[in-house]
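ok so heres the complex, two chains, lmk if somethin looks off
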Amino acid sequence: MNVLDLLEQWKQSDTFNNTLSDDHQVISYQEAYLRISVYSDWLASNSFTQPMAFYCAQSIEHLLMLIALMFNEVNFVLLPVKSTDVDKELFADQLTLKPHFCDMLRHIQLTKQAQCKTVATPGRIYFKTSGSLGTPKLVVHQRHNLIANSRNVLTRLPLNASSRVLIPVPMHHMYGFGAALWPCLLVGASIHLTSNLNILRFKAVERQFAPTVAYLTPSTVGALLLRSCKSSQYEFIVSAGDCFDRQTFQQAQTKFGRVFNLYGSTELGVVAIGEIQSKGEAVDDCVTALPGVKIKIESEQIAVKHPFGFDFYLYQQTRDVFFNTGDLARGDEITGFSVIGRAKLSINREGRLIAFSELESQIKQHQHIQDVALVKGRKDSKGHTIVAIVESTTELAPDELRRQLGKFLPRYATPSKIIIEPQLPRLVSGKINRKQIALHYEETEF
Amino acid sequence: MINSIKQLIVEKLDVNVGYDEFDQTTPLFEGGLAMDSIVFTEFIVLLEKTFKIEFDDDALAVENFSNVEKIAETIAQHTR
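and the predicted structre for the whole thing:
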């Protein structure tokens, strides 16, 4: 598919008067097509050293440049605007944009960097994994596979040209890019991009844009439904990440109608989708694989063979045919499965996967902490909290230690409780006895 | 009232900020206290409980909650 095919598709589905909007502007698909052409011409008339780093904010101008980059076979990495954790020497020229279109294209900024470590390969697009605390991986995708992946989503989600879709999930992330943005573009739906969605912005968007579909997470659903009344404008929402609790699901169903659960990853794109249902007192969030996707669940671990998945991690150019996701599931590949967590010790907080081993390494950098073991704390609206059992002889109070940790850890990764012990229980081998610690402290915080 | 609102932010919310580290004009969202959607929702519930009011739907607008000073004005309008 090239940009002319996409245009033809928009023409055929009568979408030229549908709109693309963000918090600054509203434009028609017709205007969007013209701007994509302007950006394509700009790309054709400038010489670039690739792979390029494209710093992508949640705006229409970024979206249109992204389409132009894809259809011009540019080799680029998609990064959030404030990305600082990727080795800049891996990529060459850096492309940034302001969110307002300027006729003279002064809103485009290209920073040249003649040399880089990575060999340019047309059509490749790199995504950065979340790497909540450790070094993020760079995932190599092929442009045509990404589009095929998004087309696959349309076999399950009832999106069409009359859908009005609110996308607050970032488009530099695979959930925003592959599950939300491209399926909507392929059917020519009206799209509103936004970021930092809170109840105030949400109400403003509802008034101005009147969405019929929204891509959310269970934690944001809970936050957005404060004193929310039943509304008939929504057809469905799509959620990914955490599980819904019964109360939030019921609220979501009342407000939004249907609720679809989506399972996927940066590596594989969208793997499986299911519609969430009430099942007695529980919530059934089973998903089933999309066409062509093969699932294996052995010892609760999910492995996936995806026809449109990633090629490999940059600088780690081998991988198994069945990709081990590191996720745990209950159910089976035929009737569907529910994702229950990560195989490794980790929690999900504020939608971010936090691996304990990575967080422990950071905590141990504190001068008064000799060693630390983390356990899952109580569950609140953001996921599980973190309890840190630290080995220390410090006279600092636990709350003071916590405050100091909060100065260098991200807020979502700062333990909610610190327990100071002169010595952690250990196995004969000298390793921390995590089983004993979990037995004593896991989910006991109050 | 401004001091009470500041006190709520410092003591009750997960924002990791000291009382003297912000004032009534500091933005609550980007570039200021960077309150996320969940914390902000908790904050609204807390304000309603503390000041025994209920914000009407129309009052839930960005311009009424952009900083502590604006929030104090919004609360004052609901307590009249």
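quick notes: The interface with chain B takes residues 196-201, 203-204, 219-220, 222-224, 226-227, 350, 381-382, 403, 406, 411, 414 of chain A (CB under 8 Å). thats all i got rn
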